[in-house]
Write a structure and sequence with these properties.
The structure is a homodimer. Chain A is of the alpha/beta class. Chain A has a domain of 172 residues: 3-Layer(aba) Sandwich (Carbamate kinase), CATH 3.40.1160. Chain A contains eleven helices and 18 strands. In chain A, the strands form four sheets. Chain A has an eight-stranded mixed beta sheet with strand order 3-6-2-1-9-11-12-10, sandwiched between helices. A six-stranded antiparallel beta sheet of chain A has the order 14-15-13-16-18-17. A two-stranded antiparallel ribbon of chain A has the order 4-5. The radius of gyration of chain A is 24 Å and the shape is globular. Chains A and B meet through α1, α2 and α3 of A and α1, α2 and α3 of B.
């Protein structure tokens, strides 16, 4: 078996943790498996590098920032090999140049294009543990690039795909994907399995253990992921194409409390109004999430939408300055989004209704609704977030998985 | 003009020093010159990395040590470019992969084989300041290597040779090469120029501002070096093939106080004795410096030699265990070597005699003598080191250059 394992920054944050990871790798290696491990920069090293850079230049060139960042993972992989060497295990550390991790030139947010897996295969044939820098790549001009948030997960998935690995294990500080945030929903339980699409919806909703791009890539190349804890030996959650669901309609409940709703009242009911509104916002890089447009009456209509709460004031300013085609504007920041996600709802009617019923029973008013094939999201008053999550969690019996 | 400049670790040790170097680079750039700068790791960063490694593995694999070390210079070059960017100067940082600094595979002490200067030339054509990592290389298998002590000087010389640079300036914490160590000889003066061979002798004698390998490479490729201070604008010392000397016989006086003398009395006066003695020492990696063999009489002879004081006890132990062909052994650790170096002495008789006379006038006894074409070295009692240096310095009028 060829197994790709990825450990994040906290998992290699100090000497003790490095040896903890090393022990896990050796355990796998001694089963006779080929082991490739992807590491992030140690603990807060990335933050330290950012601070160091900003001290010199508050607005450092992105290319040079990536040049600086890549020292972080290189430090991790070198130290890991030193730890493995104390155990007498043959190993080799490799950076983005050495594995030819080709990406686009988009510094700070590059995308992987291809990997030359020859070097890794050669090292594995010599029965070495191969320790690869996550998060970093090189572009076609041999400049360093970095992959952006969650980049090391993507590195691991890309390597697993390129090497046709038998498993790709993502080790984090939680031991899997839960039906809801355990800090908010006491009865939340760990899922044995979840589909790529469900995971993507959850990631988007801010409940993501994995970053979107890694899940997208895993889906595209059919890489089965396992999300596990680096601190215990629990089984974790498998992320794959299809999950046997039986009566399971919903996999999880997620909430996002960093939301604001902006409503524009009394727009002309004519073509092009929505285009003009959202075009102004897009031109200023304001991300809009849910959009609701009322049915026109008396030749006017209303449009409401949500944005991240941090963008709300800027969005309002843009609208007031550039888009004047409305009678009144009102904004609310004390709102939150609560969503249910489940591949099962595609073939089952009544899932949304069941959610609405659970909220009604709690006396929670629904302000907006938005749905995808495998998700239902409602906007509610922020103060009811926790109550809503628990009510919905209960309604779909998620605590009994 | 294409100018290669090298700055050591102390010159880029903190924000203020980084900007100090950046200012000097911009000054050169604004004259219309092409500027390539080679940087070492910041201040004590290399020590920090060693400590970090030893904490994990007291005996870390050399390959992984080099993988770790190379993060040091990469940090320096990225931060330097960030500093240059604040001044609006186009620049790019390049590491050993990006300049294709090919070396042997001898981790920790690799030698440069060739450089692909295309990338640097392209960047210079775009009028960028090119900031290159010193000290590091890659071997033919794309592993990182490092060049050993003084490695960044060698990087600078190699780049100057590959790029056919018009000048190669080595910036250090002293402002040039002196006729003697100013801490020991008050009248020591800075040399305007010195030959490669003189510089090599001085480097070997521990008075080296430049590391041997960089001077050897400069000599081989005819790269004219300038040693200058990073803290002021003094002219520095030029190191080149030939120096006009007029009456200058001697360029400098150097001393080495870390010496021990071991004398073996009553060896058989027959062939092979010296071979057996020094073969045993060589097999145990003991470096021997001066060797003196007495003329045989009564069918016996004596051999004395010097080693570094740290190796003396081991040398004695080896001799006592493996080489038993002597009557008695005595060792002295309170000795030092004082040398004069000068390309001028090749064509001038009486230089050595003048040195001996100066020492005699001071009442200093000479224990051993060794000479090369451009050097005379004497072994004396350690307590007279400073007096001997001053006497010789005076005798050759070195304070009046």
């Amino acid at each position: 078996m060829l197994i790709v394992k990825k450990f994040g920054g906290t998992s290699v944050g100090d000497k003790e943790r490095i040896f903890n990871v090393a022990n896990r790798l050796v355990e796998e290696y001694k089963k006779g498996n080929d082991v490739v491990v992807v590491l992030s920069a140690m603990g807060k090293m990335t933050d330290v590098l950012i601070e160091q850079a900003k001290d010199i230049n508050p607005n450092p060139p992105k290319r040079e920032m990536d040049m600086l960042f890549t020292t972080g993972e290189q430090t991790s992989v070198a130290l890991m090999c030193m730890a493995l060497a104390t155990m007498g295990i043959p190993c080799v550390s490799l950076n983005a140049f050495q594995v030819q991790m080709h990406t686009t030139s988009n510094y700070g947010n590059a995308r992987i294009k291809r990997i030359d897996s020859e070097r890794i295969k050669n090292e594995l044939e010599q029965r070495k543990i191969v320790v690869v820098t996550g998060f970093q790549g090189i572009d076609k001009f041999d400049n360093y690039t970095t992959l952006g948030r969650g980049g090391s997960d993507t590195t691991a998935v890309a390597l697993a795909a390129a090497l046709h690995a038998d498993a790709c294990e993502i080790y984090t500080d939680v031991d899997g994907v839960y039906t809801a945030d355990p800090r908010k929903v006491e009865k939340a339980t760990k899922l044995k399995a979840i589909t790529y699409d469900e995971m993507l919806e959850l990631a988007t909703l801010g409940a993501g253990v994995l970053h979107n791009r890694s899940v997208e890539m895993a889906k595209k190349y059919g890489v089965q992921l396992v999300v596990r804890s680096s601190l215990n030996n629990e089984e974790g959650t498998i992320v794959k194409e299809e999950v046997k669901m039986e009566k399971m309609l919903v996999s999880g409940v997620a909430a996002d409390e960093d939301v604001a709703r902006i409503a524009l009242i009394g727009l002309k009911d004519e073509p092009g109004v929505a285009f003009r509104l959202f075009n102004h916002l897009a031109n200023h890089n304001i991300n809009v999430d849910m959009i609701l447009q009322s049915v026109g009456r008396d030749k006017t209509k209303d449009i409401s939408f949500t944005t991240n709460v941090d963008s709300a004031d800027e969005a309002i300013e843009i609208i007031e300055r550039h888009f004047k085609e409305y009678e009144s504007l009102n904004a609310e920041k004390e709102v939150s989004k609560v969503s249910i996600v489940g591949a099962g709802m595609q073939s089952n009617a009544g899932v949304a209704a069941k959610m609405f019923e659970a909220l009604y029973d709690e006396g929670i008013n629904i302000r907006m609704i938005s749905t995808s094939e495998i998700r239902v999201t409602v906007l509610i008053d922020k103060k009811y977030t926790k109550a809503a999550m628990n009510a919905v969690h209960e309604a779909f019996s998620l605590g009994e998985i």
